[in-house]
């Protein structure tokens, strides 16, 4: 999209059918983009989408969905069909658990309100299929957005951010009216993080501002001026203003370059990557100092390291109702994996749990419904294995720090 493209906002929308949500019409070159702001928990928004698409005015429709969410919408059980071992091996257990938790939150809202969140997006997909219209998915992958949020916020805020996310989703069996109202203004991510986003620029940027820009760039790439005459863009009302402003200003000639930048996950800092190795080195040095003073002190330090790591990590798997063999294996594995940054206690615990209690077909079939209720996370073998992985990892991490401070205290506390 170049500077010479004639770009203008068109205020007159009288020719369009009346809608319950806000509408902004922007003309860029030979293409007219009609941005419809929707509420993600609203029958009226779904009706608006059907009415506009069925009006016959549009030759393409773009929606605020990514490929992953579109696939999940068409195949609700896709989450449960993943290879669990590969999920753990690739370090995706936390992301899968978060996605299940968000899905559970969404399902509870549907049960309480009688409205499935994202009904307007589903209406767009189904109506486009019926009308044989091109459907453009212009939102950024939800996994990339979560990763960029994680990388963008300061490290000391990450635990509270994501523990708050999972805690609020898992612990609250009744979704408040306030939460449902928030969903009428934004999407699932925005409603979940709204309390943080209002006070954190680091969170607001990847969650809102980057996605506004991303969707405008995807429109410039997938529906550039001239390819279609009239494009309906269905997106949450909270993105209407930002995305529209980006469309009204000249966008890059090669949108794909900036899109790639917005899809990239910032790498962790070198210090963060070196931290596990540094901790291992310090612990081993502590053992060496202990043995150099006297053998009894050295073995005392080794024993405390073994017991603290083993008990805390194994205890965490007990909280996840892991198989007894998993608990025992974790007890012996955690002290060793804590000294080997290439493998974690959670990976060992989950591997043993999968071997001892291999999920059955019905576990995958009922996964999406089981996790709606808190006890279902422990009842279903798939979600319980995720809990075993996460809790064993957390237990081992806490054990490493507690045991490390014990070693430091024994060596230097009385000096």
From TrEMBL:
Keywords: Membrane, Transmembrane, Transmembrane helix. Pfam families: TraB_PrgY_gumN. Residues 1-22 are annotated as: Disordered. This is Pheromone shutdown-related protein TraB. InterPro entries: TraB/PrgY/GumN_fam, TraB_bac, TraB_PrgY-like. Signal peptide: none annotated. The chain crosses the membrane at residues 274-293, 305-332, 338-356, 386-412. NCBIfam families: traB (TIGR00261). It comes from Vreelandella arcis.
């Amino acid at each position: 999209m170049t500077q010479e493209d004639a770009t203008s906002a068109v205020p007159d929308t009288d020719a369009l059918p009346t809608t319950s949500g806000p509408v902004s019409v922007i003309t860029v070159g030979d293409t007219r983009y009609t941005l419809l702001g929707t509420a993600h928990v609203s029958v009226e928004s779904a009706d608006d989408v059907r009415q506009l698409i069925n009006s016959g005015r549009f030759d393409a429709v773009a929606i605020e969905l990514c490929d992953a969410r579109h696939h999940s919408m068409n195949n609700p059980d896709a989450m449960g069909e993943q290879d669990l071992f590969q999920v753990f091996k690739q370090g995706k257990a936390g992301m899968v658990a978060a996605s299940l938790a968000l899905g559970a939150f969404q399902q509870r809202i549907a049960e309480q309100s009688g409205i499935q969140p994202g009904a307007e997006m589903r209406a767009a997909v189904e109506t486009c299929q019926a009308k044989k219209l091109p459907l453009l998915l212009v939102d950024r992958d939800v996994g990339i957005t979560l990763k960029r949020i994680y990388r963008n916020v300061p490290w000391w805020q990450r635990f509270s951010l994501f523990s708050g996310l999972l805690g609020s989703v898992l612990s609250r069996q009744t979704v408040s009216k306030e939460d449902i109202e928030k969903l009428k203004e934004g999407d699932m991510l925005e409603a979940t993080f709204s309390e943080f986003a209002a006070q954190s620029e680091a969170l607001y940027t990847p969650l809102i501002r980057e996605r506004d820009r991303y969707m405008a760039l995807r429109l410039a790439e997938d529906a550039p001026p001239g390819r279609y005459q009239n494009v309906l863009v269905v997106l949450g009302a909270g993105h209407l203003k930002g995305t529209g402003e980006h469309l009204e200003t000249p966008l890059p000639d090669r949108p794909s370059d900036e899109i790639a930048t917005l899809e990239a996950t910032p790498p962790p800092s070198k210090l963060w990557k070196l931290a596990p190795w540094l901790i291992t080195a310090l612990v081993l040095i502590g053992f060496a100092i202990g043995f150099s003073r006297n053998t009894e002190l050295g073995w005392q330090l080794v024993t405390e390291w073994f017991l603290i790591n083993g008990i805390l990590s194994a205890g965490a798997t007990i909280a996840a109702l892991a198989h007894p063999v998993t608990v025992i294996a974790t007890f012996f594995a955690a002290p060793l994996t804590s000294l080997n940054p290439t493998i974690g206690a959670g990976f060992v615990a989950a591997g043993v749990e999968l071997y001892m209690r291999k999920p059955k077909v019905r576990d995958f079939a009922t996964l999406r419904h089981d996790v709606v209720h808190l006890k279902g996370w422990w009842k279903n073998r798939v979600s319980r294995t995720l809990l075993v992985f996460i809790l064993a990892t957390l237990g081992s991490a806490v054990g490493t720090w507690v045991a490390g401070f014990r070693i430091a205290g024994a060596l230097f506390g009385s000096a």
